[in-house]
Structure formats: structure tokens, C-alpha cells
Write a structure and sequence with these properties.
The model has no long low-confidence stretch (mean pLDDT 93). Strand 1 (97-102), helix 7 (110-117) and strand 2 form a beta-alpha-beta unit. By secondary structure, the chain is mainly α. It has a two-stranded parallel ribbon with strand order 1-2. The chain is built from 9 helices and 2 strands. It has helices at residues 5-13, 21-33, 38-43, 54-62, 69-75, 83-92, 110-117, 135-138, 140-151, and strands spanning 97-102, 123-128. The protein starts with a helix and ends with a helix.
Length: 152
């Protein structure tokens, strides 16, 4: 299953009223055109967060040296995962599964998360309102309550 540029654009448009939107959206458009600069990838960071305030910017700045680029290169490399093997295995998983999506997550938009949930025989989809790609930061109480409720 693919998350398309159109999927991401639809979610990005929901953030049009944000003060950071114009610059971040221009960067996204360059990425979608296939001609991004290194700065464009950084410029779209606000789209991955439910809110982009001083605390969140400071948190992101502090994470700069915590990425393992070698591991990321393998994770996203061609052939790292065989989709049909994974799809088949998920279809046979009998354990209950909670797939948590976030209202503004451009990495996995809620409508695509629903499709992923459909791969599991016993999946439940929860969509966290107002959250980006980091639900435990955007609304920790909602996140903990949802996870704890599922685990009970």
C-alpha cells in the first residue's frame, strides 16, 4: 500500500491556517516535484507534529544527533521487506491489534491506516485528534488512555 503525494497534500491542506504553513508547504511542493533540497526535508517538520510551538521546536532541535542514518538507510532500502510475505503473515495473525493513526500524520494518513488495519483479522483503528506523527507528545493523556484501554 502506498501513501501518495495526494494523500499527504490533503492532510497538509488541513494545516493552512498555521503560521508556518506557507514556507513548509512550498518545501513540500518541491519534494513532491522530485526536486527537493536538503533544507526542504527540514522545512516540512512542522507537518509531522500536531502543534509547532517553542517547546516542540526545542525538542526537535535536541533530537538532531539521535538519528542512526545507517539504520535508516537499511530500513528504507529496496528489498528490505517483501510486501507479499508481510501481508500474508499479517493476515494470519490472530492476536488483537491496535493500529493508532493520527489526524494530521503525513507519514501515515488515517485513511491509509484504515487500509493497513484491514490487513489484520482482528484490528482496531484509533485516530488521535489533532496529532501528528508523535501521538505521545501531542496528547499524552489520550495516547495513554487509548493504549491502556486496548491492553485491558
Amino acid at each position: 500500500m502506498e501513501v501518495s503525494d495526494l494523500d499527504r497534500r490533503e492532510l497538509a491542506e488541513l494545516r493552512r491556517g498555521e503560521p508556518w504553513f506557507p514556507a513548509a508547504f512550498v518545501a513540500f511542493e518541491r519534494i513532491w516535484s522530485g526536486q527537493p533540497t536538503a533544507a526542504d526535508w527540514e522545512a516540512i517538520t512542522p507537518f509531522t507534529h500536531g502543534r509547532w510551538d517553542a517547546d516542540r521546536r526545542a525538542r526537535v532541535a535536541g533530537e538532531a544527533g539521535q538519528r542512526n542514518d545507517d539504520a535508516a538507510a537499511v530500513y528504507y532500502s529496496a528489498g528490505a521487506v517483501d510486501p507479499e510475505t508481510v501481508r500474508s503473515a499479517l493476515g494470519h495473525l490472530q492476536a488483537p491489534v491496535l493500529l493508532l493513526a493520527c489526524e494530521y500524520d503525513v507519514g501515515l494518513p488515517p485513511k491509509r491506516a484504515a487500509e493497513y488495519a484491514g490487513l489484520f483479522p482482528r484490528a482496531e483503528l484509533a485516530v488521535q485528534p489533532g496529532a501528528g506523527h508523535y501521538p505521545w507528545l501531542d496528547d499524552p493523556e489520550w495516547f495513554v488512555e487509548t493504549m491502556a484501554g486496548f491492553l485491558r
